[in-house]
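Summary of Year 1 activities. Much of the first year was spent building the evaluation harness for sequence design. The harness presents a backbone, in tokenized form, and records the residue chosen at every position. We chose the following record to illustrate the format because it has been used consistently in internal testing since the harness was completed.
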């Protein structure tokens, strides 16, 4: 099988890094400067709206009792509120919620990630690596969007239900995952030096030539040392524990609701409305229904233009404009449509209309034949 690096050497136009560089260079500095403007008031407003959805879900249960209608309505009010927060937190991983990075990180850690049982630093470390390595074998999220292990109806269904990916995703965004990733990178460097000892050493994060064009530059990442995994985990999850105790206390002692609602209307909503929805979205936003995967890695810039219902369920806060996000990750979500309007006619960007339609067609087409 021909790997992606060989294809890139044969035809540079099939190197996703070359594709992204060309598209970024097609944008003027003046436009990019406008797009990069962060409006903190908008960030706080949208965080508040999503938390209001969650509060309304709980209030619905407390005021109108526990029956099929209220339980269903509350489930989706809470779940969609959580998912909206999660997507806002994704913008926070790139420093897009507040112009001051420490304040941006506090917002993400305390108002978004910790309530939903997630560690902010581990999420940032993994996600920035995904942006750097999209379309390469060592992309930490490659297992989400490759087709080779989803090339049957049952295997794709297992993916959509989280059966194939839940444990791997949880480990990936933990200190254990960080330690594993650093060891793999160290081993890869050693192998590269052994294969080409005279080569120039790899530079992980080179300073960009044009700062205005570098909206995709790295942010600080907390490194995990071998002997500090447990300590790192405890420190990063302390806000998580405090939030869970607070939520349980509110449900039991303020709203007078039964304890099991914490499981059904907080934990289960995170799984179904956040984890599964985001895994499916991530697959759709990068999957190319062709095999082998390596032959189409340069095509993984995909954008959707779905209806309102699909936006709420799969891609709130302009997350459906995903190719634009990969090209300019430091552009806040509310400015992403401006990027789309300028780049939507570029042939390197695949535009799909509906998440549901794409998945339906894919299920019907399986198994794919290897070209």
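For this record, the design step produced the sequence shown next.
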């Amino acid at each position: 099988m021909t790997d992606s690096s060989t294809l890139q050497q044969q035809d540079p136009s099939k190197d996703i890094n070359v594709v992204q560089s060309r598209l970024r260079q097609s944008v003027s500095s003046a436009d990019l400067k406008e797009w990069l403007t962060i409006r903190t008031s908008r960030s706080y407003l949208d965080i508040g709206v999503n938390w209001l959805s969650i509060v309304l879900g709980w209030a619905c249960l407390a005021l109108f009792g526990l029956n099929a209608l209220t339980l269903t309505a509350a489930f989706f009010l809470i779940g969609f509120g959580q998912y909206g927060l999660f997507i806002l937190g994704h913008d926070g991983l790139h420093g897009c919620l507040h112009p001051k990075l420490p304040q941006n990180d506090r917002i993400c850690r305390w108002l978004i990630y910790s309530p939903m049982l997630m560690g902010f630093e581990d999420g940032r470390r993994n996600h920035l690596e995904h942006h750097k390595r999209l379309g390469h074998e060592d992309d930490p999220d490659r297992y989400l969007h490759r087709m080779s292990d989803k090339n049957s109806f049952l295997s794709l269904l297992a993916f959509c239900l989280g059966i194939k990916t839940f444990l791997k995703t949880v480990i990936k965004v933990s200190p254990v995952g960080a330690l594993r990733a650093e060891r793999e990178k160290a081993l890869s460097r050693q192998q590269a030096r052994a294969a080409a000892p005279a080569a120039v050493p790899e530079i992980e994060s080179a300073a960009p030539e044009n700062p205005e064009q570098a909206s995709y530059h790295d942010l600080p990442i907390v490194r995990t040392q071998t002997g500090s995994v447990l300590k790192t985990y405890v420190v990063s999850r302390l806000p998580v524990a405090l939030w869970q105790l607070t939520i349980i206390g509110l449900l039991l002692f303020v709203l007078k609701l039964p304890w099991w609602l914490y499981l059904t209307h907080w934990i289960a909503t995170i799984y179904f409305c956040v984890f599964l929805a985001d895994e499916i979205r991530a697959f759709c936003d990068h999957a190319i229904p062709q095999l082998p995967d390596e032959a189409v890695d340069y095509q993984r810039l995909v954008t959707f233009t779905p209806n309102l219902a699909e936006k709420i369920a799969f891609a709130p806060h302009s997350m459906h404009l995903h190719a634009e996000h990969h090209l300019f990750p430091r552009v806040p979500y509310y400015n992403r449509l401006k990027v789309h309007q300028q780049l939507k006619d570029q042939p390197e960007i695949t535009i799909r209309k509906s998440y549901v339609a794409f998945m339906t067609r894919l299920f019907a087409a399986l198994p794919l034949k290897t070209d």
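The beta strands are 302-304, 350-352. Quantitative recovery figures across the full test set are reported in Table 2.
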